[in-house]
Design brief:
Strand order of the largest sheet: 3-5-6-12-11-10-9-8-7
Shape: globular
Radius of gyration: 18 Å
Strand content: 25-35%
Distance between the termini: 31 Å
Order of helices and strands: HEEEEEHHEHEEEEEEH
Structural class: alpha+beta
Helix content: 25-40%
Number of helices: 5
């Protein structure tokens, strides 16, 4: 029994480590050479593999190449992604509201407006949605508890102000952290500032389905409609990702 418990604890620690914010989320670290940028809508199959327990019984992703932004273990410089692969985490990008692949939508906007792709991306910033998907070996409720608890570990200083009922925490960094409630789609949110900026993005932890969790990045909910806005967007994130999971 003790051995089983230790394995569960190790899996939980690994899961939490996967979800803790890392430098790759910062704008300065998002170099183009790390990212796939395809317009190809041909689906590929991706098996999600947990670092501790392996492939197990996690659902697979069957998703068009155009949606794929990053795959752990693969770099664009190594050539195109194979039609079948395994990875511990996969990042997708799409447009809020339509669910269209980000690369396809940007190319269409640039063509329609007669502008370059960089300008098109800037104009579409509020619609940009990045989803980092990974397997979880613990129940959703345990993952939610871990993410909420991680807020106070990462930012132990509760602030006097709150946001629409969400307690506000700060650490040694300039980021603000919030723990979602039982009715929220997000378990935690990490946002830059102050000062708030409509170009900056927050990171939100959530569950897609049992066995699949995600960290999502989109514009600061405090500037774009508040708590209800964040929940609406994250419900749509689940809807889009579930289109491409073999079980959801």
């Amino acid at each position: 029994m003790t051995r089983v418990r230790r394995r569960i604890d190790l899996a939980l620690i690994t899961m939490v480590a996967w979800a803790v914010p890392t430098g790759i989320w910062s704008c300065s670290a998002r170099a183009d050479y790390l990212h796939f940028s395809s317009l190809d809508m041909t689906p590929i199959r991706i098996s999600l593999v947990h670092e501790v327990i392996g492939k197990a019984n996690f659902p697979e992703l069957v998703v068009p190449r155009a949606y794929i932004y990053y795959v752990s273990g693969f770099l664009p410089g190594q050539g195109p992604l194979p039609s079948q692969l395994s990875s511990k985490d996969v990042w997708l990008m799409f447009v809020d509201g339509t669910g269209e692949a980000w690369t396809v939508a940007v190319a269409e906007r640039a063509r329609r407006d007669g502008i370059d792709s960089t300008t098109a991306r800037h104009r579409m910033r509020a619609e940009e949605t990045t989803v980092q998907i990974g397997p979880s070996s613990v129940p959703t409720s345990a993952y939610a508890d871990a993410m909420r608890a991680d807020v106070t570990r990462s930012a132990p200083h509760r602030q006097d102000d709150s946001f629409e009922g969400l307690a506000h925490y700060r650490g040694v960094s300039s980021f603000s952290y919030y723990a979602g409630g039982s009715d929220d789609e997000f378990f935690s949110a990490r946002c830059p500032g102050p000062p708030l900026n409509p170009v900056f993005q927050c990171n939100y932890s959530m569950s897609i389905t049992e066995g699949v969790v995600a960290r999502v990045s989109f514009v600061d909910f405090r500037l774009f409609g508040g708590r209800a806005y964040a929940n609406r967007r994250l419900r749509f994130v689940r809807e889009v990702v579930c289109r491409y999971l073999t079980r959801c």
